[in-house]
Amino acid sequence: MLEKVLDQKQIKVEKLPYLLALPPGHNKTSSSSYPLVLFLHGRGERGSDLEKVRTQGLPKAMEGWRESPFIMVAPQCPEDSYWPFLLESLLSLLDDVCERYAVDQQRIYLTGLSMGGYGSWFLSLKAPDRFAAVAPICGVGIPTLADALKDTAVWAFHGEKDTVVPVEHTKTMVSAINKAGGHAKLTIYPEADHDSWTVTYENPEFFSWMLKQKKM
Predict the structure, then answer these.
(1) Lesser CB count within 10 Å: N end or C end of the chain?
(2) Domain Dienelactone hydrolase: where (predicted)?
(3) Regions of the chain where pLDDT drops below 50
(4) pTM of the model
(5) How far apart are CA 205 and CA 182, in angstroms?
(6) Domain CATH number, residue 65
């Protein structure tokens, strides 16, 4: 059962390498703090070469930006693992980044694609209180645990013609959250196959929505 993944006791928390982008003027010693976006890549970017993480998703989209309005952290999953098995490692990384940088802990956001979509659902289900908003793209969650996200801002994305991860997984998860009393949003791209992330991360409305979310 997928639910058992959330209850796994890790013997060792892995230290994950990551890409980092800081907003202009970031200063840990100042009174200012900044939103943080944790991005989880897909299966194809696993390994030990961080440059692979730049080739897809949010890091790729941000290469064309003049500046970033948030701190972006993009860890890399080891070649022989998957994000749902590294939840404690991801939370440890998040703690470390919040300690090192000027993070507004009421505005921490989580997003990821494909395997990272799985990771976004699983990590937010494990630690819903850590995130002001979650945006999984073409991933799989655990509908029976969806009530954990009823008070979290959620916007999920998927391609209707996805031949890798069936769109029904996202539809079912969003429906379960809303049946539990949540207000999850869902965007289905009618003509998209598995790559439903490029158009998402190129959409200014997505980032505008995300940056408005704040934990109460």
Answers:
(1) C
(2) 99-194
(3) 11
(4) 0.94
(5) 21
(6) 3.40.50.1820
